[in-house]
Amino acid sequence: MKIATWNVNSLGVRLPQVLDWLAANQPDVLCLQETKLTDDKFTHAEFKEAGYESQWFGQKTYNGVALLSKTPANDIAKNIFGFEDEQTRVIAGTVGDVRVIGAYFPNGQEPGSEKFAYKMKWLDALREWVRSELAKHPKLALLGDFNIAPEDRDVCDPVAWAGQIHCTVEERDHFQKLVGLGLHDAFRLFDQAPKLYSWWDYRMLAFRRNQGLRIDHILVSDALKPRVLACHIDKLPRKNERPSDHAPVVVELS
DNA sequence: ATGGCCTTGGTACAAGGA
Fold first, then answer.
1. What was the pLDDT predicted at A60?
2. Where does Mg(2+) bind (predicted)?
3. Whether residue A104 lies in the annotated active site
4. What does the pLDDT read at residue A89?
5. Is residue A34 part of an annotated ligand binding site?
6. Which nucleotide lies nearest residue A164, CA to C1'?
7. Number of domains in chain A
8. SS3 A217
9. Closest C1' nucleotide to A209's CA
10. Is the Cβ atom of A210 within 7 Å of strand B at any atom?
11. A9 is near strand B: CB distance < 7 Å
12. Residue range A89-108, pLDDT digits in tens
């Protein structure tokens, strides 16, 4: 079973690239972030044509998430239960025997800002909800654009990024608290080459220079960990014309 | 060469992203 996540930075713009990627990679599940489409504009017919069922949760201009799967997802949840939020950031469903939670974590803008405070509250709420989901569904994957680089080795220039958004102690503490629920960063279950990232700024020729961050993650539960065969970041779509600034992350399960 | 982008809404440029 192959499960993937990709922040597409506008599905309206990126749909052809997503369809190409699905055809080439054939994941069983793909979680999308930053679809930026209202629900009436979601491209479920195109995905159906490509062999995928869709669940989606969008809004105008910003955010927006979706869960694509070869077999229908059940027990769909949208956003964090009990956490009032105008923003569409979470979609969850059960595919086969795996509970899949796809999330677009808040950016946070800069430490000390209102958006950073929202990120902290959102992370608190997410953790408590994921705790309850884990109790109900031991075989669980939490994946998406976390907007957190967990460690210095996930950062191209740790000195320049020290204390900056995505790299603050507060954000990294939150990441570790999520891991503390009984989750594992699938990427780090394996020996990986150094300097592998999932996001590169559009500016400054950052991709060509590999000046990136690893902020897109797949966390797997204790019960799922023994089934993890591989995890990798697919840089190929970042080389497309008009690419998303993020690359897909893929985990393979037995 | 130390700065270099992209998307949306809406039709000029501001806001947000990371």
1. 94
2. 7, 34, 145, 147, 245-246
3. yes
4. 98
5. yes
6. B18
7. 1
8. strand
9. B4
10. no
11. yes
12. 999 999 999 999 999 999 99
Regions of chain A short of the pLDDT cut 70: none
CA closest to B8 C1', residue = A61
Strands (E), A34-165: 53-57, 65-69, 74-78, 90-95, 98-104, 140-145
Q: Is A46 annotated among the ligand-binding residues?
A: no
Q: How far is the CA of A24 from the C1' of B17 (A)?
A: 28
pLDDT at A118 (0 to 100): 96
Supply the range of the domain harboring residue A84.
Answer: 2-253
pLDDT value for A155: 97
Q: Is A114 annotated as a binding residue?
A: no
* Pairing of β A29-33 and β A2-7: parallel
Q: The CATH number of the domain where A44 resides is what?
A: 3.60.10.10
Catalytic residue among A104, A137, A174, A197: A104
Amino acid A36 CA to nucleotide B11 C1' distance, rounded Å: 20
Distance in angstroms (rounded) separating the CA atoms of residues A110 and A42: 31
Q: What is the pLDDT of residue A168?
A: 97
pLDDT for the residue numbered A2: 98
pLDDT of residue A158: 96
| A108-115, Cβ contacts within 8 angstroms, sequence gap of 24 or more | A108/A147, A108/A165, A108/A166, A108/A171, A109/A165, A110/A164, A110/A165, A111/A163, A111/A164, A111/A165, A111/A168, A111/A170
Predicted structure pTM score: 0.97
- How far, in Å, is the CA of A98 from the C1' of nucleotide B7? 34
